[in-house]
Amino acid sequence: MRDAYHEELDSIGDSLVEMARLVGSAIGRATTAILDSDLKLAESVIEGDQKVDDLQHDLEGRAIALLARQQPVATDLRIVVTSLRMSADLERSGDLAQHVAKLTRLRYPERAIPQDLHATILEMGQLAQRLMAKAAEVIVTKDVDLALQLEQDDDAMDLLHRTLFQHLMDERWKHGIETAVDVTLLGRYYERYADHAVAVAKRVVYLVTGEHADELQQDIKPDIQPVSGVDGA
Amino acid sequence: MRDAYHEELDSIGDSLVEMARLVGSAIGRATTAILDSDLKLAESVIEGDQKVDDLQHDLEGRAIALLARQQPVATDLRIVVTSLRMSADLERSGDLAQHVAKLTRLRYPERAIPQDLHATILEMGQLAQRLMAKAAEVIVTKDVDLALQLEQDDDAMDLLHRTLFQHLMDERWKHGIETAVDVTLLGRYYERYADHAVAVAKRVVYLVTGEHADELQQDIKPDIQPVSGVDGA
């Protein structure tokens, strides 16, 4: 039987998984909303983010109370501190899903995304959702191999992001500046979302293995920037 | 005379101020670099970010050691936990300054920013640097009034960001898609940089007043999005 202390630690883990589930669903729904120009679905994502914020807020309160009351040391202390960081990553992921939904609302009833970019955006949205589902699984299973898979998935996201930039930079681009701005921001939202999912997984790896102290840091990977022939970013 | 414990707490505060100083200088230099297309200056910002990362890493280690050894409660515990969050904000601000510098390098020897946007970008860069200088001052002085000033400064940043979007959306825009993409990303870098500076100040307010629990959260303010006639974002 577990004591109250470990039950509380477990419940923090449960909240993280619930947050990951919510923001995973949010990016999936936001992607559908922007591709279909579905205002109602977009609104549900925008409103739903409050629940993620509330969960984070609640988790923070419990984590700090746990530190104060139980004064954990060593591994347990690291779990609590790392959970605070993971909750920040997940909260930010929720914001980014919300941004995708807000762009849908801003352009409604127009479609923000031209047809020839639908496939790429759909892939980015699906990949983002899969990354978050894997991050949630890593939180539950502490599976280091799965966590390392996320980095490969993230490489695929970078590739999609580059594809998006190539479309933008193509001389045959005919969708004008407003759409170029929207697509630029959208690409960044997905890329950052993926970064946070990877960060969550890496934090678990660090907890399990104690290795890669650098990965404790807020940002793991440099953001990619637009290309122009060479990738100098 | 202060005991070792409070000396350690103070030294964490000193590290935060040093980080703020470094990332404040970085955004100023990155702005000059992108406006002048000064590759050497850009490289110095890119390389200099390692020092910020190292400081954060070191600060985290000391904060966690302090939690483990001293097991602070109440206010002291909140100071340590909040310091961890502030260090994450500052580290991310450094990344954003580095992004500005990388965009300079990517476009070199071309200038990334057309002449008619120089004034706006310069203002954004200067405002970002002032915001960070004030954030550092707030860390030192715990001056709540000054912290609240940062929110007004941030409104000015939003206004500049909107100005930038208006330039982009103007039918007379003649700088092409690549520059539109660069300017879109650049605007976002400055805006997010400012958000993190404001977040740092708000976290201090929370420590001092114990109010505004919401402001403990990672993100305080919704990001602005491109406008198109009306601001629906």
From TrEMBL, chains A, B:
Primary residence: cytoplasm
Subcellular location: Cytoplasm
Description of how the protein assembles with itself and partners: Homodimer.
Protein purpose: Plays a role in the regulation of phosphate uptake.
Annotated ranges, domain PhoU: 16-103, 121-204
Coiled-coil annotated spans: none
The family this protein is said to belong to: Belongs to the PhoU family.
UniProt protein name: Phosphate-specific transport system accessory protein PhoU
Pfam family, one: PhoU
InterPro entries cross-referenced by the UniProt entry: PhoU (IPR028366), PhoU-like_sf (IPR038078), PhoU_dom (IPR026022)
Keyword vocabulary terms for this entry: Cytoplasm, Phosphate transport, Transport
